[in-house]
Design a protein that fits this description.
heterodimer; A: 510 residues; Rossmann fold; 32% helix; 26% strand; B: 324 residues; mainly alpha; ABC transporter involved in vitamin B12 uptake, BtuC; 0% strand; globular
Amino acid sequence: MSGPEYLVEMRGIVKKFPNVVANDNVSFTLRPGEVHALLGENGAGKSTLMNILYGIYRPDAGEIWVYGKKVDIRGPRDALALGIGMVHQQFKLIPVHTVAENVILGLREQGFVINERKINNELTQLIQRYGWTISPNSRVWQLSAGEKQQVELLKALYRKVRILILDEPTSVLTPQETVALFQTLRKMASQGLGVVLITHKLEEVFSVADRVTVMRAGRNVATKNVKETNIEELVELMIGRPLLKISSTRSLDTSKPVLEASGLVVLGDKGLEAVRNVSFKLYRGEILGIAGVSGNGQTELLEAIAGLRKIMRGKVLLDGVDITNRHPQKIIDAGVSYIPAEVLRYSAPEMTVAENLVLKAYRNHLFANSLMIRWRDVNRKAEELVKAFRIVTPTITNKVANLSGGNIQRLVLARELGTLPNTKVILAAYPTRGLDIASTEQIHQELVKRAEQGVAVLLVSEELEELMALSDRIMVMYRGEIVGVLRRGEYDVEEIGLMMTGVKRAEVSA
Amino acid sequence: MIELVESVLVGAVASGTVFLLASLGETVAERAGVLNLGMEGMMIMGASLSYIFTNALGHGWAITAVLLVGAILGLLHALFTVSLRLNQVVVGLAFTVLGLGLSGLLASNEIRGRIILALNPEASPAVIASQEAAKLPPIPIPGLVNIPIIGPMIFSHNILVYISLILAGGLWFILFKTSFGLSLRSVGENPSMADALGVNVFLIRYIAMAICGALGSLAGAYLFIGYQPFWVEGMTQGRGFISLALVILATWNPLRAILGAYLFGGVEALQFRLQLVGVAAQLPYFLLMLPYIVTIVTLTLLSAESVRKRIGVPAALGVPYSRE
């Protein structure tokens, strides 16, 4: 191979946003033919750094060298012209257009009339080379998340990019799709591309990357060959200290369930059955995990139990009392906490931190008499919770809208876990989605602590690692149905992954 | 009976061409993400200008002037909605009000007379005072016009009818088969993405609005010199708004707009003829209502999520675009 050693060299990059230095003198290199993981917690500055390379942000200081030449990237167009492509977390695709139309949009060498046959041939070749199954003529809205990602990759390949950046590409994929993606990335690297993989998941570093650059609080703390490092070292580099082990000494009392659901049928937003005939029992002190690709009825199931969505058929019993389709307030009073997936939608962004914290409990005698809210008690509690849940906010009178995503997540958690007396059941939907390791760890500990105190937890997550670490049992949901239940000790990533695609348990083991 | 059907069909094309030209223009604008509620105003401006210019300089100059002024009106609309990012509904309605007023002012005896004299000092006092203008001559296409039903329906009209049909096909080709069309549709779906991929969102929206304004005004010119060349203030009578509904009915597709336009035109032709014959006095009113009912039904169907995914409203319709 001739040419410069590095495809990309970023030197001394500084990027400041109001109140925060996102990149503080960061350096980064990318070699041809390597997959380079950019690892770090949320807010460590990984995406900012790559958005600078892709031209979305302009650095306040520092130099970027591409193919050994100093460049000035003023926007994504410049980046594309240099052969730099980026696949964002949110796909930049037009759903009503075809795959081919999405790929060729903005290409100048197309000429006025689009030569459909030529483009379809070229795309089909590329698709076959990578072993994909999408067709150039499908409409993007018909595709699954994994296939949409293939369209994004196709876009980059068709533009002959030599540098490809992927921002947390696995967050929308099933385990199988993730494996396929990693094979694709290896193949791209073997053809001389440089691939940057932005991630906060350690196992991804080890399964696909050649080198890893770790970022923490806006600085690059180390760049290592993946072969010469290990998980413990990377965790320490990422969060600045070793990870605490989750250890729990819970004993389950399986004589009588706290929460019992039988034959639940719930409709989704489109009026179709999102939950089909789901039954389960949840015991005191148990954490019951629900695995599945999101959108398979998990959210609807939790909403139905919390009283936010109508149960068409079936029953929910809490300590033997029927709470099916009761008013949400009654269900809250009965001891059910609900940590929703979309935390912002379930908070009041224009109200203060303190007000949000007592949104569910303000009627409670702790904070109010029959007529008036006692703000002094509310504020005292809010101060206490902000400290206990490490919510970063200047004061408790700041608007929630101004908080970062992780902080809103912690705030909702504090609201659900810290303000209601006599919680019996916690319904948690993706409580750590998008959070970094330290925040995730904190939420895990909080859930385990509650379980130890005898609270039953129903935990929906897409992270199998998380489910396997915390749950006593794991139910797998696919298209609204329970495909199977595994007990602790029987967990197997491969098997759960298959079940997430609808393969029944018997078929798996057979 | 056959004669009545034939005359209604011929009338459908004759009056439907107004809707066709206008909805073609509107389709281009909306595909690019700009809602032009000023269509009615642009149309009546076209009618008024074609009246004045035909009497001063003849049909050729009238059509040229109408296209030019229409494009300028479209560009002005784009200036407000694309560059200054004002609310498209408000700006559009303002253009409608402006057009209705300005067209009446220009066509009023005093001002019209001065304009005609300025353009053509030799114009006779009779022409200057006339409330009418010469109608575009029909150009039957030899051979084709003899096909039963279809022949007279399509091939017995004036030049603007043929142009409108060619435009429908041409715009369909441009929208769906060319890279410019792809860029234009992408701008209407997701402008920030198109921008990132190197598409000039602002330029495309300006071009789309120029086309929309030109075709909207041309529709008005056709209404006057091609359909009923007798000046009445406000003679568009809401046809601009019907064209907006037609765009939805045709699901933003120029070819489907032909069918929709002739359907609406047919309703107009039919009620006109029924009124003449004196069939049940209420029926014509019922027929006049039909286009709106059809539109409401279409809108209702379109609101279903599953349908919308396939043929829906351009996702960025009515949303001004700004970088960051």
